[in-house]
Design a protein that fits this description.
This protein is α+β, with helices and mostly antiparallel strands. The chain has five helices and five strands.
């Protein structure tokens, strides 16, 4: 069964994104060519009237303009552990990157930094669920499914120099 029911292409300063929604919320947001991109989705294109996808586009427009925004309802598909990690990413404030180890400790899973890193890398909702705010223990930019140049650009937009 397909978790996604509708999609929309959204243009951003860092390239186009494909946004997908489930019956209850935003289920995916991927840059073209990024790792773990599901490929062509076999769901209809939004005609511009869908509330969740419109809220997603408005949130992205505000984000790239440096303004605050409300998140659309989120519904990423994943394991319970992945969803726990993705929820924790939402608590990382703009301009305040966290490390994988600190995130693992915050979740009470200090010994699970590698598994946590894998879950961060599988985040299906780019930009709005801010996996780009997780950096290496030494502050270095580690992997980003959308590419390190995009990770650097997103962090720079938030005032972080790496």
């Amino acid at each position: 069964m397909n978790h996604h029911v509708l999609q929309r292409r959204i243009e951003t300063p860092l390239g186009p994104l494909t946004a997908a929604r489930s019956a209850t919320g935003l289920s995916g947001l991927w840059f073209d060519g990024q790792k773990h991109h599901p490929g062509a989705l076999d769901v209809p294109e939004d005609d511009g009237s869908d509330a969740v996808l419109s809220a997603t586009e408005a949130a992205l427009t505000a984000y790239f303009s440096g303004k605050s925004f409300d998140l659309p309802p989120l519904d990423p598909a994943g394991t319970a552990f992945q969803r726990e990690v993705w929820q924790a990413l939402l608590a990382i404030a703009p301009g305040q990157p966290s490390t994988y180890g600190a995130l693992a400790e915050r979740l009470g899973r200090a010994s699970a930094a590698r598994a946590l890193g894998a879950a961060v890398g599988r985040n299906p909702i780019s930009v709005l669920v801010p996996c780009h705010r997780v950096v290496g223990a030494d502050g270095s930019l580690t992997g980003y499914a959308g590419g390190l140049e995009r990770k650097q650009a997103l962090l720079s937009l938030e005032g972080v120099t790496a």
